[in-house]
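Quick start: read one record
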Amino acid sequence: MEFPTSPFYRWLDHARIRRLVHEIGALPPGERLVLLKGLVPGLVDTIGLEETEAFLGELATKARRYGEAESHPGEGRLRRETPGEQLGGPTPDGHHHAGEARDPDRPGGRAAERVREAAIRLRDVDAAAARCYCAEAEALTETYIAAGILPGEAAFAAWETLARLRGLVSAAPAPKSPGT
């Protein structure tokens, strides 16, 4: 099965990660905690203290949201009090977030957020690509402003357009026709 994937997760070796998660999941809880603690110094050395602390905050958010989901089975996200994770995610060198939480009520839902994430990744994470597309982004921004879009929205819409045009957004699988 194919699922749409955030551009922040496409580069990962998903099979390897899944295998490690299952293998580590078989350990007793205490050993899993020690394993997590053992990973922290290496993260601080490679991505720095600030990014490591931000990531640990993400883990706390993930734990709270999971706990809320477990305590309200079948009630969905409407009963949750903890905001969703921030847009963005892992990069080969650490992680990058946009400072805005996931919003399932956003027009276009998760698919629209994937487009935003692709634009963020293109503009903020992949410096070489951002330099290549900077002139195109400026031209698109001017076109959008001329069409009446506010400058800040026009600038981001330009990067979203470039992300789509460059194939950085994975499409949702085609719906199955009845009887297949």
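The mean pLDDT is 82.
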